[in-house]
Amino acid sequence: MKFMYTMPVKIIAGEGCLNENRALLMELGRKALIVTGKQSAQKNGSYADAVKALEANGQGFFLYDKVMSNPTVDCVFDAAEAAKRESCDFVLAIGGGSPLDAGKAAAALAVNAVEKDAIFRFSCAGALPIAAVPTTAGTGSEVTQYAILTNHAAQTKTSVASPALFPRFAFLDGRYMRGLSRAVTINTAIDALSHSIEGMLSVRASVLSDPMAKNSIKAIAECFRALKEDEPGLPVREKLLHASTLAGMVIANTGTTAVHAAGYQLTYHRNIDHGRANGLLIGAYLRFVEKKEKSLGTDRVGEILAALGMRNLDEFDAALNGLLGERERFSAAEIEGYAEAAMRAKNIANAAIAPQKQELLAILQNALAPGA
Amino acid sequence: MKFMYTMPVKIIAGEGCLNENRALLMELGRKALIVTGKQSAQKNGSYADAVKALEANGQGFFLYDKVMSNPTVDCVFDAAEAAKRESCDFVLAIGGGSPLDAGKAAAALAVNAVEKDAIFRFSCAGALPIAAVPTTAGTGSEVTQYAILTNHAAQTKTSVASPALFPRFAFLDGRYMRGLSRAVTINTAIDALSHSIEGMLSVRASVLSDPMAKNSIKAIAECFRALKEDEPGLPVREKLLHASTLAGMVIANTGTTAVHAAGYQLTYHRNIDHGRANGLLIGAYLRFVEKKEKSLGTDRVGEILAALGMRNLDEFDAALNGLLGERERFSAAEIEGYAEAAMRAKNIANAAIAPQKQELLAILQNALAPGA
């Protein structure tokens, strides 16, 4: 069995971990570009913790807090300009997937001369050192080499990927997830679940990534009931956070597959949250894989179900539907467009059982317009 | 839950992985100090593969092939002198735990001025870059920051530990284990099993290390029957190899505990193979932990048994005894000496349920002189 595995991120977890381990930040540089969204880092206490740590270290910082959901190329160039203008020599990215990915991309753009229209094809050989503080439990960006940005030219979201984008440190503090809305908690948990499931279905799945994927799937499934509560307790928050980091460690090694490729279409064209978009699609994708596996003699779907603690995909669909609530409606033309565009995504070929175009169309029809 | 996790080693696995990925070695330097034992790397093909890769890269090398089992301080200083004299700028360590650990220690000593009698207390801030090629499936040294050396002053084996000792690359090729004797295969598998079990019983066990530990325990237990065969097939060799690397990833983050601490005594004083020494002790240690857990309300032993696919420790003892065969005999005085010395080892305090001196003595008595 051939495989590769890499995970250069040092992971530090626990309440107060950022300040208790603030000495680590000293290894990164003298002045941080703190990258956040517009509000949440201020509300959840993570920004205050970061400032406290940097000030105690005698390190400077400049706050770039203009990252929107599904960050644009303009936004990350703007952040990189701020890093250069303010002489920041490292990036401290705080937030959900959008600020983390934007911070990582900015770290790369601060030290590479790239034209805006070349960002999705440039070879990134270096970046400012990065520390990441997730404030949602979904993206896994704190442990990946990916920065996913809105790609208007291709009308989708596309990743910039480079080993230089691995953060040096990921600080996991479950307290920052307190107060997240039920919808955000559910959508991000489904995103992490999708990472681990897609990781198990990747051509690059290995004996090293599988244990992480299965454990993360199990942990998230154990939280399904708690996900519907208005404010899950800190133990649940931590469990989801650690599971999402494990899922990030998985996709750092396996990549994602058809679910993410098609999910980006729903986000780009209908502004459906990324995790929710994956959730709308993953059940139908698993049905497709299950059917294919019958003739191949493999049973990855069975292994996924075992990790979920479920007997069959009906149970999985029921659980997901309970979390997703009423589904959006899509026209036949929309669905055809998504299938066509998703087939061009590089992560399609990453699936061990990759759908052909007609098969992907059927998956999307089953997922987005069942019975139509 | 507070924890840290780090694993900076890039792992490359599969038949022929060293030559297929030989370009990676170019990142390490111009000239390798190849560190091996006296014969096995020549016999199993790993040395020839390494030479082929280096020559194809146009890299030079010098062979240091004098590493003995349980390498001495003199040996690693000798290897480090060779690296300096021959202007080697990286280390390619090939072999079982002894050559890997010796190579890693030599990489450190080549760039640090240390007196021989200070080697177990020096703070190692840097080392030559290291690539590791395991040829047994046990040590996990290819993914750890430890180099374990014979410590004559303290009459035991002691680790030198530093983040600088993590190899940059670990190349896992199961073909190099073909032809290992049944005894070596068994002893090294038990060593890896002990790493994962002790990792689960460490104060530093975490939601990241546990999935790796459990999966590695499960994989090794599934090989128990094949371990008794004269030449297990390549799939079994690979399964054991990947499990031992997983176990190494565990102890890189958790450290080992009382079993290793006491096992070093058996190796130092009676020349009992390291893995076998752990195997002689681990059953009794688990009985001790199981008893303590009754009052603590935890059930780590139950989790370990579940990973083993066994119902109770009687089954585990029976399986281990079947692999270990007839046990060595030890005098009461020997056992007392081992308990006393092991209590001074730093890994004793690493156990979540750490034995007091009288408890460790009782564990060793139960393990080494049952019924006496």
Structure write-up:
The structure is a homodimer of 372-residue chains. Chain A is an alpha/beta fold and 372 residues long. Chain A folds into 2 domains: 10-177, Rossmann fold (3-Layer(aba) Sandwich), CATH 3.40.50; 182-368, Dehydroquinate synthase-like, alpha domain (Up-down Bundle). In chain A, 50% of the residues lie in helices and 14% in strands. The first copy, chain A, has 15 helices and 8 strands. Chain A has helices spanning 17-20, 40-43, 46-57, 73-85, 97-109, 182-200, 209-222, 224-227, 234-254, 258-270, 274-296, 300-308, 313-324, 332-343, 357-368, and strands at residues 3-13, 31-37, 60-67, 90-95, 130-134, 146-151, 156-161, 169-172. The first copy, chain A, has a 6-stranded parallel beta sheet, with helices on both faces. The longest helix of chain A has 23 residues, at 274-296. The radius of gyration of chain A is 20 Å and the shape is globular. Chain A starts with a strand and ends with a helix. The mean pLDDT of chain A is 96. Strand 1 (3-13) of chain A pairs antiparallel with strand 1 of chain B, so a sheet runs across the interface.
Q: What is the topological layout?
A:
Two copies of one chain form a homodimer.
Chain A (H helix, E strand, L loop, with lengths): L2 E11 L3 H4 L10 E7 L2 H4 L2 H12 L2 E8 L5 H13 L4 E6 L1 H13 L20 E5 L11 E6 L4 E6 L7 E4 L9 H19 L8 H14 L1 H4 L6 H21 L3 H13 L3 H23 L3 H9 L4 H12 L7 H12 L13 H12 L4
